[in-house]
Amino acid sequence: VNHIINLERQRFIRDCKQVLKGEKVTDSLRRTIIHSSPGHVEYLKRDLDDTEARLVDIVIAKVKEDSTKALSASSQRINILAISVLENLSTESSEFAIDEIMKRYRESINPVKALYYDLQEIMFLYDGKPKNKHHQFLINKFKDIESFEHIIDAIDRDLSDLSECKQRVNKLKREHNYPNTSEHLKKIVDLYNEMIQWKTLFEKFPEWINENSLPLDPKGTNNFCTTITKFFK
After folding, report:
1. Domain of 145?
2. Taking Cα atoms as reference points, which of 108, 156, 36, 141 lies closest to residue 11?
3. Which 3 state secondary structure label does DSSP give 61?
4. For the whole model, what pTM was predicted?
């Protein structure tokens, strides 16, 4: 073990001297400085005279500053990528906004998400007939898969953009050793998973209408519950 530690110290001091001569910071030196405790760094500097220790401290400060700048630049690039996708969603188009739905939610809600909420409500509350005129309105409007054609196309475009964004962000993280997950990247991942649920419900909703077009008997109610469980599991 002592032999390994001595080799680490020798490599650490050697790499610091190379940086002072104008050489690039090695990955090994960067990892040692960034990930070591202050006590371990002091141990690696042991046996150096005051002048050598001060020069090593200069290298340590430079590596830490460069690392901080690199992380900040990576964070900015990640956020720019994520924001560019989040602000240009096909599903945000006003063509999907239905007044009867939108007035029930906050103004900024994605209109396709609002539709998902309303159709989900219809399915959960259905007990043999629609609960109200609004539910009946939506059942009539979205009774066949063609009703969802443009909406599903928009979801597919967004899913493709979100997936590409995730891949590009993860590539950036690997290239720059960026350890954290930004808030915007979390939104990308969460929205992707949400849209998968939207698409699943929209594709199944006409089928659900057809299955429940007749009055439900006890057996039918059980089938209905099974359908709901399958949709939202």
Report:
1. 94-232
2. 36
3. helix
4. 0.69
